[in-house]
Each structure stands twice: as structure tokens, then as C-alpha cells.
Amino acid sequence: QVQLVESGGDLVQPGGSLRLSCAASGFDFSSSPLGWYRQAPEKPCELVAIITKNGDNKAYGDSAQGRFIISRDNAKSTAWLQMDSLQPEDTAVYYCHAGLPYYGSKCGGNVDWGQGTQVTVSS
Length: 123
Fold this sequence. Notes:
123 residues, mainly beta, six-stranded mixed β-sheet
């Protein structure tokens, strides 16, 4: 069955870095765009970054531009989100999603989403 598993979330101080991983199984990973999204309490789901099927093109949300980098390795069925210069406002549950860009208000809840990983930025 389709499965996406995020990892790498942690508590980090402002200015710190984290690298999130998204391991996929149960489908042809190379056939889907892959996006990272986040949801903070009381806020809607936010697109952080998205990468095309073959990794040739990437796009970032305003909050991620210049600080985060999305990448993927189709041979490993894995995607990553490198996050640098983290700030308290980056605190959220981060999800990966296989498919076209998602613009709904709630992240997760379907088979093409992972369960999320918590990122907390605090001193």
C-alpha cells in the first residue's frame, strides 16, 4: 500500500538547521511530484516546497525561499527538506505529499500524505 514516512523533526534553537526525510513505498515514486507542507496550530496547511517528478524543477513558498532546499532521489524513493536559519515561526508539523500541489486547509489525512514530523524552533 502507499506509504510516506517523514522523519527528522526535532527541537532546535533559532538559527539552527534540520534535515527532514520522506521515505516512500507502495507506488512508483518517480511518477509523482513531491511536496513538503506544514501546519501550525490554528493555521491552514501551507505549501513549503515542491519538486517535480524528475527533480528538474523546484518551487518554494515565500517563507522557505532562500532558507530551505528540497531534493529527491528516485532510486531511493526518498525526498528531503534541508532547512536552515530556522525561526520560531517555522514551528509546525511538517508533512510530505505525493502528487500535484495541494491547496486545502488541512494537511494530511489521505494515503498520499505522511503522518507528519514535528519541528519546534525555540530557545
